[in-house]
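Re: your question from the hallway

Yes, I did run it. Sequences:
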Amino acid sequence: MRKLRLILGDQLNAKHSWFKQKNKNTIYLMAEMRQETDYVKHHIQKVVAFFISMRNFSEALNKVGHQVIYFKISDNENQHDLEKIITRVISDKKIEKFEYQLPDEYRLDEQLKSICKNLKIESKVYDTEHFYTSRNDLTNFFHGKKILLMENFYRMMRKRHHILVINEQPIGGKWNYDHSNRNKYKGEIAIPKPLSFSKDVLSIVNDIQMADVKTFEEIDAENFPWPTTRKESIELLDYFCTNLLAYFGEYQDALYSEHAYLFHSRLSFAMNSKMISPKEVIDTVITYFNNNQDTIEISQVEGFVRQILGWREYIRGIYWKEMPNYAKMNALDNQNKLPDFFWTGETKMKCMQHAISQSLTEAYAHHIQRLMIIGNFSLLTQIHPDEVDAWYLGVYIDAIEWVEMPNTRGMSQYADGGIIATKPYVSSGSYINKMSNYCSSCHYKVKNKFGENACPFNSLYWNFLDDKREHFKNNQRMNMMMALLNKIKPDELIRIKEKAQYIMENLDSY
Ligand SMILES: Cc1cc2nc3c(=O)[nH]c(=O)nc-3n(C[C@H](O)[C@H](O)[C@H](O)COP(=O)(O)OP(=O)(O)OC[C@H]3O[C@@H](n4cnc5c(N)ncnc54)[C@H](O)[C@@H]3O)c2cc1C
Ligand code: SF4
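Structure:
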């Protein structure tokens, strides 16, 4: 039977059972499409990373004898629409059966179901064989529960997969070393130079320009740093184990103006495109830990495992549990517009200037920059979650909706009303000062609430809590914050709110 098998741009899993056997009657189909480049405006580095990884993957399949039909973005015969491309290839190649892997994005899942309905031939869908969990595992695990605590899910995952566990108990005696993961970085340990793959990607940049795809920001096309093959993904993982793991947990939450990556792994793109699997990453890290217990502490390793086995799988489960309604949620009814400086990094706030400029130049920011700087500011200034979502989806190299949206709309903007975060991740300047070296060189004074030079985060923070009182009145986790708010004298609160209002009306001058 002549089969056509579709491989989407984030399904570059060379270990998938599809590829175990070669068959002259099986054709693989890959396409760089305008439908994917245009649904949101993407960073040029993100588009390049996906297309070059797809081309490398298709070449690798060809090399070992699989047949691949590949449409480049600039090919004349590329129809740029999934349904049209599939239908044309089925007809041209006299295909009798169509097969695909479960997409991770709701939009594509719906589209493929509809395409299959319209096809006159049989179709079949396979798992991607990438994640630890299936789409519905989280829904089943939390069945009947009102609160979907990540920690409970994570412990179940540790036990189920026997990870850092002996006799159902955590190695080291604690399930979670979050408290040891909150250190400020003060330059005491040298941060290793990030591993860069320095590739020449000029030809693909030309193809993207020729096709007139609208992207933003810039790329050093002769020194592209991201991994775009399975081999490079494994190299990046090994580099992480050897050079960064020993301090990962300790400085996981640190913010530092001189380094973009600190001790973070930069593995998210390699994993989200599926060039490497979460199981391979975790197994490699744990093997490295077992062989180097004299130099690496359990807290460093647990902190890393929690992100992948816990957060990454949890976020995906929430996405499939809550979509499609999740995409429209705006529980706090935030309506403001994204300021222009999100596209330039031109602001006097050092923390925002650093986090945004880095996001724009590198297509990367680490978790706390995304959550406690950019996300925090967006929430305090009450920006509409649609605008925040679109910005995150376009900017980051690793941004695919299933992982970007619950993190942005849910965890960072509390637009889901507390499905993911039991309370909003907001702070005044004091948290940022505690975790970073930003404030000492900032135009604004972190300790001040009033006056021209007062840190904007301070008045915005109290104003946000006051504005949203009604939403939080039954949230016990907010009691302490609200009690502190209630201690502020009425006339002082009026001044704070006036200041915050002025900032929100003049965001681009801050
Ligand atoms: C507002 C916001 C938006 C985000 N958008 C994305 C996104 O579009 N794509 C994305 O992959 N991650 C996203 N994250 C999660 C996290 O910030 C990134 O995965 C991480 O910064 C990637 O860098 P790294 O590979 O160096 O991570 P490391 O710090 O080295 O962590 C290791 C791995 O853990 C996983 N991980 C860590 N935290 C999370 C999380 N909250 N959710 C899912 N996986 C996690 C990632 O796969 C990451 O590669 C977002 C977080 C926030 C707060
Ligand atoms: S003083 Fe305020 S605005 Fe400046 S870096 Fe610190 S937290 Fe950011």
